[in-house]
Specification:
The complex is a heterodimer of chains A (about 100) and B (about 350). With about 100 residues, chain A is mostly beta strands. Helices cover about 10% and strands about 30% of the residues of chain A. Chain A has a single domain (about 10-100), classed as Roll (Ubiquitin-like (UB roll)), CATH 3.10.20.30. Classes of the chains: A mainly beta (about 100), B alpha/beta (about 350).
Chain lengths: ~100, ~350
């Protein structure tokens, strides 16, 4: 099957504020998500991140089906609470940033 | 479809946890800075001519605090002098990196910086303390020593006030912990916006009503340079549980944090409840509810090679230390090699 630009979306995922410690201290990730018939939501992305990027202690990043309380999510520099949280439909070229508020100085 | 800012109608970037309002970046900055200014002026935190040591760890809270105090001092002409004050606990691989951040902040905000170390003040680094006592209870040493270290550093700087970056989440957490521990004396003190005026220098918390979420968002949007880390020695388990519980509550009802602070502030203690009398340490002069303060007791334990005896109830540890010093005085006239004791004058 030939790959066309419609069959995946490219997004930028970033971890900071200490969240990167769970990802081998790698902050920025360019991610290609293959497109099936169902849209990619944050809910789905969290599962994908847990399975593909997360390196340790998953309970410090996800809890049940959502992100651990105290980790903020920004979608294109806006609070995810404004765009539908878990149900937000991810678009091609989105920038999704996870910032932990749980770490000290 | 972007949500509109409640204040100006522009594209919102943040849902404010305190109010639930959606706000745009500029209106968020405006509200955030105005609210901290309100906290400062309403609580009379500063007087013209004050020399204020800003506790700076390189983390998000203290970085935002240093940035905003500098900004507000200029904008509203508080007429205060600001100095960054950092404590080096002597934890290799933890504090080194964050102190580098503070050193950059010094140039970014054009503020003088002073670093005081546990090693200089007490003769012990946290690395050396952990080597002695292991990974249990080391937070007790660190917490007690840090409190005094800030005071001593500030006095060296001839500052007359200390400002710390404690935020609303920190205070709510502390209220919760003091309730859980039944620590009435601390419960009453912990919500005060200015404390310590009786003994050490007065310390104030200009971010007392500021949510952690907003501090992090403010630092993010302002692109402030801060360092996030976790201490390599201990997760401070008790506070960790309180924090997780609070974060869970916040998700269900964001006002929980401010509500908890309000509860702490509104508590009144019955007159017949016996409270510890705050005096001063007979050894170092620091504020203490016992004849010898916790830092001196801990230090004495360390220097006598009995570090664990100083953990727990003060009276009990005092007796054990006295007993230990009597027996060691009679058997050992010479100063033991462990006695790398520093004079603690305050």
């Amino acid at each position: 099957m030939a790959e066309s630009s419609q069959q995946h979306i490219d997004i930028h995922v970033e971890f900071s504020g200490g969240a990167e410690l769970l990802f081998d201290k790698v902050k920025e990730h360019e991610v290609k998500l293959s497109h099936d018939n169902n849209p990619w939501t944050i809910r789905k992305l969290l599962v994908w991140i847990k399975e593909n990027l997360l390196k340790e202690r998953p309970e410090l990043f996800v809890q049940e089906d959502t992100v651990r309380p105290g980790i903020l999510i920004l979608v294109n520099d806006a609070d995810w609470e404004l765009v539908g949280e878990l149900e937000y439909e991810i678009q091609n070229k989105d920038r999704i940033i996870f910032i932990s508020t749980l770490h000290g100085g | 479809m972007p949500v509109a800012c409640r204040m100006c109608g522009g594209p919102a970037v943040l849902k404010r946890p305190k109010t639930g309002d959606a706000v745009c970046k500029d209106c968020f900055f405006y509200a955030f800075e105005n609210e901290v200014n309100y906290t400062i002026t309403n609580g009379n935190l500063f007087k013209r001519g004050d020399r204020v040591a800003v506790g700076a760890s390189g983390g998000k809270d203290s970085t935002v605090l240093a940035y905003i105090l500098k900004l507000l001092n200029e904008r509203h002409d508080y007429g205060i002098e600001l100095i960054l004050l950092s404590v080096d606990e002597g934890i290799t691989g933890y504090r080194d990196d964050s102190l580098e951040t503070v050193k950059r902040n010094q140039h970014q905000y054009d503020l003088p910086l002073k670093i005081v170390s546990y090693e200089d003040l007490y003769g012990w680094t946290m690395d050396a303390i952990v080597k002695q006592i292991g990974l249990k209870n080391n937070c007790t040493f660190c917490g007690v020593f840090r409190r005094q270290a800030l005071d001593r550093g500030a006095m060296l700087l001839k500052a007359n006030k200390i400002a710390t970056g404690h935020n609303a989440d920190d205070i709510a957490e502390t209220v919760l912990m003091n309730v859980l521990r039944g620590d009435i004396a601390r419960l009453r003190r912990c919500t005060a916006i200015t404390t310590g005026a009786e003994g050490g220098l007065p310390r104030c918390k200009p971010l007392k009503y500021t949510y952690e979420k907003e501090i992090v968002m403010y630092a993010y949007f302002k692109k402030l340079d801060y360092f996030s880390t976790e201490c390599i020695y201990s997760p401070n388990a008790y506070r960790g549980h309180a924090r997780t519980y609070l974060k869970d509550l916040e998700r269900i009802r964001p006002s929980s944090i401010i509500d908890l602070i309000h509860s702490g502030e509104s508590l009144s203690i019955k007159k017949d409840v016996k409270m510890p009398v705050q005096g001063t340490c007979t050894r170092c002069g620091y504020i203490s509810s016992n004849a010898i303060c916790k830092a001196c007791t801990l230090l004495e334990g360390l220097n006598k090679g009995l570090p664990k005896l100083a953990i727990g109830k003060s009276n009990k540890s005092r007796r054990l230390l006295d007993a230990a010093s009597q027996s060691s005085d009679s058997t050992n006239e010479k100063t033991s090699p462990k006695e790398k004791k520093k004079d603690v004058t305050f």
